[in-house]
Design brief:
This protein is of the alpha+beta class. It contains 11 helices and 12 strands. Helix 1 runs antiparallel to helix 7.
């Protein structure tokens, strides 16, 4: 435990120390996490099928990492927007996201104290990677999105992935200085608001190889996001926010302005009324802010699990007294 790891960068040494404190975290997990964080553009490029080495690397990665989410199902983007790579092999394995509305995403980047806790499977329905261990949560880095960067015609801007807390923020800054910048919590909130206005979905990401923890908020579009691509191909990599959209028929005028913004293609205007496909809706809330008539709102759907609320987790961790 007292090793100084000479020759390694400070953020790598910090990551090694933190990995040794993580129960059940194996060397292979650390190696996987290191490769993922050190070369994310290669890793995600292969995972989305965009990199020229994808066909060669994906089978090898599948054997190395025990991947269970390789998909070769043909798929298309119903909106016809840069979905040509949707049927390519995906090996993003235990790289999972939890949909969070804008309010929940803001919570995750405005915490001012260290947090330790584990969400139940009702919140984060994954066998591993359910922990919130935020150290220095005000250390936030804006990273050029590896998914967008891998595409030939990406959505812009690129620097919309928010890496939150240590040792992740320092690692990204130190290893990717040309693609990162340190930002304040207020700047992180502004990025979230701007991406929300563009119709992009906020995902809190957890990965078993990243110490099994929450480490990032990504702002995702269905045309670029590898996780949404895999989800569309039948790989359950994304968890619902715990909400679904509901339309007030008396207020809806059937204008259809909200439908093009739905990244999950859950909205359809028929016979002058907006219809919600609740089986496709993930409860991101993007449509709520697009409706000029205030006819759409989010409602709790208990069959979709519980919302991710960092405030609730912190409250539950407080001593109740006698």
């Amino acid at each position: 435990m007292g090793r100084t790891f000479p020759g390694l960068r400070p953020s790598t040494r910090a990551s090694i120390r933190e990995s040794r404190k993580t129960s059940g975290y194996r060397f292979l997990d650390f190696l996987h996490g290191y490769v993922y964080a050190r070369w994310p553009y290669f890793y995600i490029g292969v995972g989305t099928g965009e990199h020229r080495f994808a066909r060669l690397i994906a089978p090898l990665a599948s054997r190395l990492w025990g991947d269970q989410n390789v998909s070769r199902k043909p798929a298309s983007d119903p909106r016809g927007k840069r979905g040509e790579s949707a049927g390519k092999s995906v090996f993003a394995e235990t790289y999972h996201g939890k949909v969070v509305p804008l309010s929940g995403a803001k919570e995750l980047v405005t915490i001012n104290t260290d947090v330790t806790g584990t969400f139940s499977e009702k919140v984060i329905p994954y066998a591993r990677a359910r922990e919130i261990v935020l150290k220095n949560p005000d250390h936030i880095v804006a990273l050029d999105c590896p998914c967008r960067a891998s595409r030939q015609n990406p959505c812009l801007p690129l620097d919309v992935c928010l890496i939150v807390g240590e040792p992740f923020a320092a690692f990204m800054l130190e290893h990717h200085p040309e693609r990162t910048r340190s930002i304040t919590q207020a700047e992180a909130v502004e990025i979230l608001k701007a991406e929300d206005a563009r119709g992009h979905v906020h995902h809190a990401f957890f990965k078993d190889a990243m110490l099994g923890r929450f480490y990032a908020i990504c702002n995702c579009c269905s045309c670029c996001c590898g996780a949404m691509q895999a989800h569309r191909n039948g790989n359950p990599m994304l968890a619902s926010s715990g909400y679904v959209s509901s339309v007030d028929d008396s207020a809806c005028i059937g204008c259809g302005k909200c439908a093009p913004f739905c990244q999950f293609h859950a909205l359809d205007v028929r016979e002058g009324r907006n219809h919600v496909d609740t089986s496709a809706c993930m409860g991101c809330g993007i449509c709520v802010n697009r409706c000029e008539q205030n006819a759409v709102r989010l409602v709790r759907d208990h069959s979709r699990g519980e919302p991710l609320s960092i405030r609730d987790l912190m409250a539950a961790a407080l001593p109740t007294g006698n």
